[in-house]
């Protein structure tokens, strides 16, 4: 081998050492395409490996919730020292398709799958001294669930000429449901652009409302597993009717105030008249009162100091008046 160049000798020797070394490449194979299964069914997460199984062989399955990093995985089961250990909340629902998994098959079987089982599953094989690979495979699982009953709502200026936004949302469903709005019953075809819906968000935008826009609207949430719906009634108000009603109410209030005012005025006049009578005594005449234009004679004035009790009870003011009035011929 002296004739070989130095660099060629080096790489040849390195290749021979690699081939006769005890450690081998660990290969783990899993499906490339994500898996999906309806809730309640069983699923098999396929995982196979290639390595020379020895005393230090170990297998681990772990789970990562959607949106979390791989480093936050939770162990489901692991096999080491020829013993199988089940851990985590899924322990009662998981088994290995081949136990012990020492013949290249590490497939995991999960029964009665639930929406919480959706996520990424890690199949990891460790077989010292075979450290020439990470020995890791990822399997993505989606548990299919029909949509839950959606909730409908409305907002906006729901009157003639205004606009309204109808909303529809389902709290559950995998894959994510698609929303479709329909109007129930017979109705004229809306003008182009006056009715726009978003299948992803579930919103329906209505513009340039008219009285014919009133009616019952249904939102249907659907995915591969089924559908559910909700309904709402849209009542478009007519502002002109409101103005007429306001005018009528105004007139009625005006009449009410007028009646109350007249009543109070009449009551005031009655009270005032009553007070006047009490103050002036009305038309009562005293017995000793003198008629207008009648004066006492000197004789009578001389005896004016005589008390009223000395006068004759039969003498009256009227008789005196008649006797003292001058005669005119």
From TrEMBL:
Q: Which gene encodes it?
A: VSIG2
The family database entries (PANTHER family) matched by this protein are listed as: V-SET AND IMMUNOGLOBULIN DOMAIN-CONTAINING PROTEIN 2
One Pfam entry for this protein is V-set
Originating organism: Monodelphis domestica (Gray short-tailed opossum)
What name does the UniProt record give this protein? V-set and immunoglobulin domain containing 2
**Which superkingdom heads the taxonomic lineage of this protein's source?**
Eukaryota
Regions crossing the membrane = 244-266
What InterPro entries does the annotation carry?
A: Ig-like_dom (IPR007110), Ig-like_dom_sf (IPR036179), Ig-like_fold (IPR013783), Ig_sub (IPR003599), Ig_sub2 (IPR003598), Ig_V-set (IPR013106), VSIG2 (IPR042475)
Q: Which UniProt keywords apply?
A: Membrane, Signal, Transmembrane, Transmembrane helix
- SMART domains hit by this protein: IG, IGc2, IGv
The family database entries (Gene3D superfamilies) matched by this protein are listed as: Immunoglobulins
Looking at the record, the residues that make up the Ig-like domain are 22-142, 146-235
Show which residues constitute the signal peptide. 1-26
Kindly indicate whether the keyword Chloroplast belongs to this entry: no
């Amino acid at each position: 081998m002296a004739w070989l160049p130095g660099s060629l000798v080096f790489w040849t020797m390195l290749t021979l050492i690699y081939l006769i070394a005890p450690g081998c490449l660990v290969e783990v194979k899993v499906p490339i395409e994500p898996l999906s299964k309806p809730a309640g069914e069983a699923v098999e997460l396929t995982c196979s490996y290639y390595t020379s199984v020895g005393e230090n062989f170990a297998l681990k399955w772990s789970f990562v919730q959607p949106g979390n990093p791989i480093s936050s995985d939770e162990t489901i089961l692991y096999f080491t020292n020829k013993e199988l250990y089940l851990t985590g909340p899924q322990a009662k629902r998981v088994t290995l398709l081949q136990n012990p998994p020492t013949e290249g098959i590490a497939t995991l079987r999960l029964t009665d799958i639930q929406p919480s089982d959706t996520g990424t599953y890690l199949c990891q094989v460790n077989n010292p001294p075979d450290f020439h690979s990470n020995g890791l495979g990822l399997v993505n699982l989606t548990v299919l669930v029909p949509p839950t009953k959606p909730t409908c709502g409305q907002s906006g200026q729901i009157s003639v000429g205004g606009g309204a936004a109808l909303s529809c949302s389902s709290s559950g469903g995998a894959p994510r449901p698609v929303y479709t709005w329909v109007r129930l019953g017979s109705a004229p075809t809306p003008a182009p652009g006056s009715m726009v819906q978003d299948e992803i968000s579930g919103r329906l935008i209505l513009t340039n409302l008219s009285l014919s826009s009133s009616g019952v609207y249904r939102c249907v949430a659907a995915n591969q597993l089924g559908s559910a719906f909700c309904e709402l009634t849209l009542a478009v108000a007519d502002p002109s009717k409101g103005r007429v009603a306001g005018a009528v109410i105004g007139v009625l209030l005006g009449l009410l105030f007028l009646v109350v005012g007249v009543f109070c005025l009449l009551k005031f006049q009655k009270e005032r008249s009553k007070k006047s009578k009490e103050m002036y005594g009305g038309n009562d005449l005293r017995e000793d009162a003198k008629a207008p234009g009648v004066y006492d004679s000197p004789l009578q004035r001389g005896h004016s100091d005589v008390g009223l009790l000395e006068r004759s009870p039969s003498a009256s003011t009227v008789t005196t008046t008649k006797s003292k009035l001058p005669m005119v011929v």
